[in-house]
Amino acid sequence: MEDPSRFKGGVKDFIYQRFLESNVSRPTFDGLSFSQIGFALFEESEVKEAVWDCDGSKCSSPENFNFYFIKRFWDVLKGSFMGFFLRVP
């Protein structure tokens, strides 16, 4: 190819097709999407222990709840957490 715009388009199409996902099923948590690594079942005690091991002031972004909030309201939130971790792909 000698035309730069055709070459760029060809590279873009190749990369797009190479990394295109089909039939993607990703777990969600209140509308947030997460990448799916694999399938594993976790006990509630394991999930709770992981949450309690986190610093209370930490959160994934400024708009999200910190771990202090999650720990404080664990009895209310644990159903959502466990639903996320027990979801079968």
Overall radius of gyration: 20 Å
Which structural category fits the helices and strands? mainly alpha
Order of H and E elements: HEEHHH
Beta-strand share of residues = under 5%
Tell me the number of strands: 2
**Separate helix tally:** 4
User: Which stretches are poorly predicted, pLDDT < 50 over at least 5 residues?
Assistant: none
Sheet with most strands: 2 strands, antiparallel
List the helices and strands and how they pair.
Layout: H1 4-19, E1 28-29, E2 32-33, H2 44-52, H3 67-72, H4 74-85
In short:
The protein has 89 residues and is mainly alpha-helical. It has helices spanning 4-19, 44-52, 67-72, 74-85, and strands spanning 28-29, 32-33.
Give an overview of the whole structure.
The protein has helices at 4-19, 44-52, 67-72, 74-85; strands at residues 28-29, 32-33. The protein is mostly helical and 89 residues long. The longest helix is centred in the first third of the chain and has 16 residues, at 4-19. The chain is elongated and about 65 Å long. The termini are far apart.
